[in-house]
Design a protein that fits this description.
The protein is mostly helical and 317 residues long. It has helices at residues 21-35, 37-60, 80-85, 87-95, 98-102, 104-112, 115-120, 125-161, 170-198, 203-224, 234-239, 244-257, 268-278, 288-308. The chain has one domain (39-308).
Amino acid sequence: MTTMLSAAPNRKTTTTRRPHPLLAVITWELRRLMASRSTWVLLFLAFGFFLLFIWLLWLSNASGITLGSRVGFKVAITSAEGLVSILSILSFLLVLILPFVNADGTARDLKQRTYELLMSAPLPSWAYIWGRYIARLLLSLCLTMVLLVALLLIGLILHHTQTDYPPPQLEVILMIWVVALVPTTILISSVSFVLGTMLQRHPHLVKMGMILGWLVCALILGAISPVVSEDTPSWYLIWEPTNIGMAALLEAPYLYLGIRSSTPITDSVIFSALTNLEQQVPNLGPYILPHLIWIGLALALVGFLARSFKRFSNSSN
């Protein structure tokens, strides 16, 4: 008798690891943003908007770069003094764009009618919130980098087209970008995202509210900044989030140390002294801790939202 033995082939059991839910949401959202034509159009238009606005600031002296006490001397817009004088304006340029990027972080799901599908998927609520937030924040930081490139490009163009325009101070531009503009970007993005998630059916109100709220703060601080040395506590101007108080304090040494004259400046020695003055690196040290705390509060706000966010399937509504 012949015994037939059938040996089962050796099969290796392979287990496919599911990606971390947070990384899955971030990756999916970034892929969607990168594949969307509107994202690239936004970056391109923002770059053109930043270039045009900075160029107009230079042409019209809207930033106060030409000081009345220095007749005939125009401070370079990409010098240390010029950057300080337009710091609050650069922050406001970001406010005009960032709420439109972040307020739709989750509200877009309602518009695209994918909200019910996502909420019924086996996806933790915290991963849904943090993943969307981080992806939108990365896009916001890209827009801030676009502003940085626009500043450098304007400085290079002016340096090569005007004989008396100094090269842009790269180290000062990077310092102001890191210490002032990046924290502002995180703060605006976080508040816009949180409000947009809480008011998913009214994202346009959030966008307009962010811009109007920033304008109100700017008007109030703009009214008190001229008397910063007398009536306004310095701690208040260091801690306020719009960078108007920061600009007022940083600009004060340039005003007080500058050569004052009621007649046009023609002496080359005076021009050299003023040029050295405008290149003086501002002291940004006192503003690092307040901006880090603002960043911490912004992230805590998102964390609170992620913890308290309720999916419709298990909510009481």
